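Fold this sequence, please.
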Amino acid sequence: MKLKHLFTASAAMLALSLGAAQAGEVKTIGLAVANLQANFFNQIKQSVEAEAAKQGIKVITVDAKGDGPTQVNQIQDLITQNIDALIYIPAGAAAASVPTKLAHAANIPVINVDRNADGAPGDTFIATDSVASAKAVCDYIFEKAGHKGKMVIIHGQKGTTPELDRTKGCAESLKNNPDVKVVAEQYSNIWSQDEGFQIMQNMLQANPDVTIVWGQADALALGAAQAIKVGNPSQKIWIAGFDGDTAALEALKNGVFDVTATQQTQKMGRMAVEDAIKLGKGEKLPPAQLLDATLTNKDNVDGFIAQHP
């Protein structure tokens, strides 16, 4: 209730103070990032800033460090700095709709990247087709495990778009693999490697005979692999991730884990800037623009590593 009242009052004040913005040239973009501790979000930030520099556009970046209320305050501040467009990666599901409503109340277009806001989506949404990609990852790891075994899942941040879609995609694969039994699941808070390690340690204690692990982000998978190395190094456990993070690709090459889905992260950032310019001119864009991710294993990882010198 407090957030709702906060939005109502803040939106009214901002709309009155800023007036009705007119469609036109985009000179300043606000970039609200969920958590710059994550390599994935850092890559998007770098890509946005590089593309904006080419276009002569200023970018003001804020990092919520995984905290929704902090992000609401940061975006209120961005709006008072007269940004012409907002590129927005929600820090969590709880308050995700508030910044979009605040921006729209000030006639500022919103481009959501990776995560959308339930009930208040951006003017367009750029993301990986996580449902299809997660299904492909789980199909691959189940085949490697002989289509049977005990599986644990380390989820991303509960209720966020990628967590929901990746869960849905793997569930489709599980339907076709009835001899794979999910014996434990747990949510992370910020998709971090430390969380993956701690969660996997606990899961191994309760399920020492697990044979399949899926971390819904590469950081979670790397943490899980580290816990397995410490707690159960002798048993072969198949480990899957998701993202194609820079460090994870090297780890994949070295056999630390087995498969990931490499997202077109740099392209997402470039598209977000291009879309900000289009929206500033009053153009209409599709509500969702979904990109493919590439199933990546030891056989094809070198090509992706070469893209991140």
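The first strand starts at residue 28 and ends at 33. The chain has two domains: 2-127+264-291, 130-263+299-305.
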